Amino acid sequence: MPGIALVTGANKGIGLEVVRQLATHGWRVFLTGRSLASVRKAASPLGPSVTPVPLDISSKISVEAAFHVASQAVNHLDVLINNAGILDHDEGSIFELQAERLRRMFETNTIGALLVSQTFLPLLRKSQSGRIINVSSGAAQLSDMGTWAPAYSISKTALNGVTAQFAAALADSKIAVNSVCPGWVKTDMGAREAPLSVEQGADTIVWLATEAPQSMTGLFIRDRKPIPW
User: Fold this and answer.
1) Which of 65, 152, 177, 192 has the most CB atoms at less than 10 Å from its CB?
2) d(Cα 164, Cα 113) in Å, to the nearest integer?
3) Residue 150: is it exposed, middle or buried by C-beta count within 10 angstroms (0-12/13-18/19+)?
């Protein structure tokens, strides 16, 4: 059954594809991104069920303003997809990692998702089957940690920690919380040499939002299957 979703970082890439697929399935979707112009441009071809909302997840004021817009438009939210994230392709190694770079990664990739989840939780609690989906990365796996993009990897590992904490805290509620590894996808972040299309990258996210068992919670998922943390 179609529901109501909000997707962060949805003006391009995987986020935009997730919005497109949900809208195709009849969902009402809040398409968010940092600038009003970018979200309006992204939403315009997707039809009236997609509402553009400016949202900078690194700004508490912006997050609260987006919550106000959503709460004025709908009385609940079924799915929150924390997709927004940043990556520096020239990070170098952990030996040279500057604290400021790591702080910047945490501000968006970890704290931003935490803040959005906390802020929109009252709307999610009003759903009959709420879901929080955090878009993480295979680079975050402690079970197979490499040396690539240390600041990004560490921030996504911490995001997985946010997922596990929310899942445990909401265990007695009607809200499922999971992390997703979309794989290496052809986007501005993933670059052209990535093997997966945005459609493939969005698949597990959309599946979690629409079809996955509500009992599936507190997991790290890739290709619709749990993977090690």
Assistant:
1) 177
2) 13
3) buried
Q: How many residues does the chain have?
A: 229
pLDDT tens column, 111-148: 999 999 999 999 999 999 999 999 999 999 999 999 99
Q: How many CA atoms lie within 13 A of 2 on its CB side?
A: 11
- Please identify which residue in the block is written with the tokens 């709908």: 74
- Residue 1 DSSP code: -
Note the pLDDT of residue 107: 97
Of 173, 166, 178, 167, residue with least CA distance to 209: 178
Alpha carbon distance 98, 119 (integer Å): 30
Catalytic residues: 152
What does residue 75 show for φ and ψ, rounded to 5 degrees?
A: -100, 0
DSSP string over 87-154: --TT---TTT--HHHHHHHIIIIIIIHHHHHHHHHHHHHTSSSEEEEEE--GGG-GGG--SSSHHHHH
Closest listed residue to residue 30, CA positions, set 45, 9, 14: 9
